[in-house]
Amino acid sequence: EVQLQAFGGGLVQAGGALRLSCAASGFTFDYYSMGWFRQVPGKEREGVSCISSSDGSTHYADSVKGRFTISSDNAKNTVYLQMNGLKPEDTAVYYCAAEPECWSVPDYWGQGTLVTVSS
Length: 119
Hints:
This protein has strands spanning 3-7, 10-13, 18-25, 33-39, 46-51, 58-60, 68-73, 78-83, 92-99, 108-109, 113-118. By secondary structure, the chain is an all-beta fold. A hairpin with a 4-residue loop joins strand 7 (68-73) and strand 8 (78-83). The N and C termini lie far apart (40 Å).
């Protein structure tokens, strides 16, 4: 059974930081690029960041560049998203996903974790 368990969300003040984690199981982690997405009610889900399985390169949406850092620990089948300098507009439900390649349609989705940034 494929599982992607995301956790680490919470309430933080603007300018603060959070670290999201996503633990994967049930598929070959090394074969997949891992991404983080977010969604605000009433809006489309958007890609936030991705780390490539082929070369370890990292990719970010313009809105989070310089503030968020994605990393992975293949030994633990876990991907992380370090979020610094959080802004109220970062408030969303964050999802992790396993993608054949970065920014492609994910094969697997995790459950979301809510991040709320207060002003």
